[in-house]
UniProtKB/TrEMBL annotation:
This is Formamidopyrimidine-DNA glycosylase. One of its GO terms (molecular function) is double-stranded DNA binding. Binds 1 zinc ion per subunit. Keywords: DNA damage, DNA repair, DNA-binding, Glycosidase, Hydrolase, Lyase, Metal-binding, Multifunctional enzyme, Zinc, Zinc-finger. It comes from Streptomyces echinoruber. The keyword Ion transport does not apply. Pfam families: Fapy_DNA_glyco, H2TH. InterPro entries: DNA_glyclase_Znf_dom_DNA_BS, FPG_cat, FPG_Glyclase, FPG_N, H2TH_FPG, Ribosomal_uS13-like_H2TH, Znf_DNA_glyclase/AP_lyase. Residues 2-120 form the Formamidopyrimidine-DNA glycosylase catalytic domain. GO terms for biological process: base-excision repair; response to oxidative stress. Monomer. CDD domains: EcFpg-like_N.
DNA sequence: CCTAGAACCTGCGAGC
DNA sequence: TGCTCGCAGGTTCTAG
């Protein structure tokens, strides 16, 4: 479940169902799922064994499970199609089950990493003084992080020679925003996705950030966005925010503000959805 | 240094 | 029915 709200839904599920349990055994069924663990699958499995899981954390779309009494954590990224599921032992293996974690208790459930496209994965890393895994030190704070620096973000936008949607998806500037919530926030802010970042005034940046936060909080409140069973919480349940989307996936449907048919444009090997009337294209640069 | 584009995967639905 | 194509919510590497 890719973007921040969906990952946060998963994090909360792990906090409830997996935190404070001790790992008994780890089974890696597909080596690609642990490719970011450079020492290999056997090493990954061996190092987790016997450790107690702490309270899961998240930054942007990354989440991690600290191992108690160590300075290491299991880092997870769901990529495009990854799921972390808490399943009864008896549940049949999913078709794309990649990693299974069993626990040393009698709760009867195990943690499963399931991932159709294998863009996601698990890996073990050292953590810094702040608890952050070292390999994601370059990932910016996300907009729901109280320490996110709005002013620094605005200065970065002014400095860049790129367009606003690219910047929103740049995880080193602001993390957690993906294709859906970028389109939603831009629609709410009435900003065209190809607007140069250098043209944003301080109030416009503040307004846009406000919309990013609003749409993510609204999605979080209803369990995130899912169009199908690929994006689910740890119990396999879908969120309901898909029915509240104003831009994403609404090609040809009337804009909810002005009734103009929404458009879809190919963009960076994916799509951008926008209202051609509310979100005017920027003047061509000479 | 910065930015844009391709590459990495599997599966699904549309169209022929 | 079966094939091909386009498309999918992300990150990372490379070329310019």
């Amino acid at each position: 479940m890719p973007e921040l709200p969906e990952v946060e839904v998963v994090r909360r599920g792990l906090e409830r169902w997996v935190a404070h349990r001790t790992v008994a055994d780890v089974e890696v069924l597909h080596p690609r799922a642990v490719r970011r663990h450079l020492a290999g699958a056997d090493d990954f499995a061996h190092r987790l064994k016997g450790h107690r899981v702490g309270v899961p954390s998240r930054r942007g779309k990354y989440l991690w499970l600290p191992l108690a009494d160590t300075s290491q954590a299991v880092l997870a990224h769901l990529g495009m199609s990854g799921q972390l599921l808490v399943q009864p032992h008896a549940a049949p293996d999913e078709k794309h089950l990649r990693v299974r974690v069993r626990f040393a208790d009698a709760l009867g459930t195990e943690l499963r990493f399931v991932d159709q496209r294998t863009f996601g994965g698990l890996s073990l890393h050292d953590t810094g003084p702040d608890g952050l895994p070292d390999v994601i030190a370059h990932i910016a704070r996300d907009p729901l992080d109280p320490l996110f620096d709005d002013e620094a973000f605005h200065r970065a936008l002014r400095r860049r020679r790129t367009t606003i949607k690219r910047a929103l998806l740049d995880q080193s500037l602001i993390s957690g925003v993906g294709n859906i919530y970028a389109d939603e926030a831009l629609w709410r802010a009435r900003i065209h996705y190809e607007r140069p970042t250098a043209t944003l005034t301080r109030p416009r940046t503040a307004e846009l950030l406000g919309h990013v936060r609003d749409v993510m909080n609204a999605a979080l409140a209803v369990g995130g966005t899912s169009f199908d069973s690929l994006y689910v919480n740890v119990n396999g349940e879908s969120g309901y925010f898909d029915r509240s989307l104003d831009a994403y996936g609404r090609e040809g449907l009337p804009c909810r503000r002005c009734a103009t048919p929404m458009r879809r444009r190919p963009w960076m090997n994916r799509s951008s959805y926008f209202c051609p009337r509310c979100q005017r294209a920027p003047r061509a640069l000479s």
